[in-house]
Amino acid sequence: MNGPEDTSRSQPRVTYLVKRLEQAVRSHLDEATGEVGLTTPQYAALSSLLTRPGTTSAELARMAFTSAQAMNQMVATLERKGLIRRESLPHHRKQLGIFLTDHGLECLRLCEERADQVEKRMFADLSAAEQRTLARLLRKCSSALAGDDARASGD
């Protein structure tokens, strides 16, 4: 037996290929975000805050699939770097919402440029139609494993 590439198969399992791709993407994103002085999880947190400003640390932890303690440490680091600020939320004075600073927006923009380059390299041999198909199929697979009855958008 050859591990994930079982000898009874002529091709490796799709799940193995997905994991290999995830590892390669993560490696390239780590390098790309590192050029900006961030980690990939920090970049992901900033991205989330762009679309959901005022998110609490607990909400951000759920969105990032991380523990509240790990997110609290990340938020403290991002705040020290001047990338985010925390403010009391108008509807819940005891809760602090997290917002991007101008410096955070600029770092996020730089990370996005680098992530675009990673995707450009990854998709170099795929047509635009193949890229859309791949995205649609990945959404469907994710939805199926998440237990969603709703079909992925774009079907």
UniProtKB/TrEMBL annotation:
<keyword id="KW-0804">Transcription</keyword>
<keyword id="KW-0805">Transcription regulation</keyword>
<feature type="domain" description="HTH marR-type">
    <location>
        <begin position="11"/>
        <end position="143"/>
    </location>
</feature>
<dbReference type="GO" id="GO:0003677">
    <property type="term" value="F:DNA binding"/>
</dbReference>
<dbReference type="InterPro" id="IPR036388">
    <property type="entry name" value="WH-like_DNA-bd_sf"/>
</dbReference>
<dbReference type="InterPro" id="IPR036390">
    <property type="entry name" value="WH_DNA-bd_sf"/>
</dbReference>
<dbReference type="GO" id="GO:0003700">
    <property type="term" value="F:DNA-binding transcription factor activity"/>
</dbReference>
<dbReference type="InterPro" id="IPR000835">
    <property type="entry name" value="HTH_MarR-typ"/>
</dbReference>
<keyword id="KW-0238">DNA-binding</keyword>
<dbReference type="Pfam" id="PF12802">
    <property type="entry name" value="MarR_2"/>
</dbReference>
<protein>
    <submittedName>
        <fullName>MarR family transcriptional regulator</fullName>
    </submittedName>
</protein>
